[in-house]
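**Sequence with structure:**
===
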Amino acid sequence: MNMINIGSGTVVSKKLQYTYAEVMDITSNFELVIGRGGFGSVYCGQMKDGNKVAVKMLSSSSTQGPKEFRTEAELLMTVHHKNLVSFIGYCDEGDKMALIYEHMANGNLKECLSENHSHCLSWERRLQIAIDAAEGLDYLHHGCKPPIIHRDVKSTNILLSEDLEAKIADFGLSKVFKNSDNQNADSTMIHVDVGNEKSAIMGTMGYLDPEYYKLNKLNEKSDIYSYGVVLLELITGLSAVIKGNPSIHILEFVETQLEKGDLNTIIDPRLKGNFDVNSGWKVLGLAISCTASTSIQRPTMSAVLSELKQCVNLESTSTSERDIFVPPRHIYSEFYSSSMTYSFPR
C-alpha cells in the first residue's frame, strides 16, 4: 500500500484521503451534528455509494490536537476487527482535519443506558455488548503486534450498530508499546502531581485507573480497570460518576449496596428482575475483579471474555436452578480487599 507523510508522521494511503471540499459535500455542509467529544464535533454524512458515515472534525478548541489526530489515523489504518469501528478515510488540509468512520446507528452505550432513552437494553443484550467490547480490547492487547493500549475506554467510546453490535471507537489517546519495557505515558491530557514531579496522565475521570493515576505506570491492565467501570455501568444502568451532592463514583455506590447483600439493589431496576441471578452475581464479581486497585489483581481481557461467555450460558438455566442459587460471599471480600485502596481521582 502506498504511504504518504502527513506533518511529522507517516499515515495512510492516498486513496483514503479526502479534500475538505469532499468532506463538506459528504456532510452536506456539516448539517447534522450527531456527537461531540474531546476531539471536536461529529457529523452525519453520506458517501456517493449511499453508505452513511460519521465525520469527526478536529476543533481549534479541542483538548486533543494534531498529534492525537495522526495517532488515531495511523492506528485505524493498521487495526481491523469486527468490534472496532471501521475507518473510511481522512482529511488533512492545513487546519482542516477530519476522520471518517462507518456510521453507528444506535449511538454510544452511555446514551443507550440513559434513563431518557426510549428502550431499555435487556440483560442478555448487555452481556453481549460487554462481550463485543471485550473482543475489541482483547484484539488490541493480544492480537496486535506491537500491543495497543486504548487509554480512554468509556461508555461514550463504545458505539452500537443498527443491530446493537458494540464496537470500540476513539483511538486518539492510544499508546503503541513498541518496546514492552516502556510502560510510561508520553503525551499530555490531564496533569496531576505525582510525588514532587508533574507527570502526564491521560484518560477520563471516573474511568481512570487509580494505579496509573498514582504511580504513572501504564499497561493493558489500565484498560481493564476502565472496562470494569463500563461493566458496572451495564450492570447498574448508572454513570461512572453519579451526580449528586456530593457526587460519588459508581464503585462507591456498589460498595454501599453490597453491604445490604441484595443483588436487586445493584442491578438496573428498569430490568424488573429479568435476569439470571447466577449470571448477575458472576458479572458483578467480574467487574469488581477488573476494578481492583492494583493491576496485578486484575484479570486479562482473555480471562474476562471466558467469564462473560459463561454468564451467557447461565442465562439458559432453568428457573428451579436459579432459585437454589446462593450468592458467592467471596465477592464481598474481593471488593473490600482490592477495590477501594486508593481515593478516586476527582
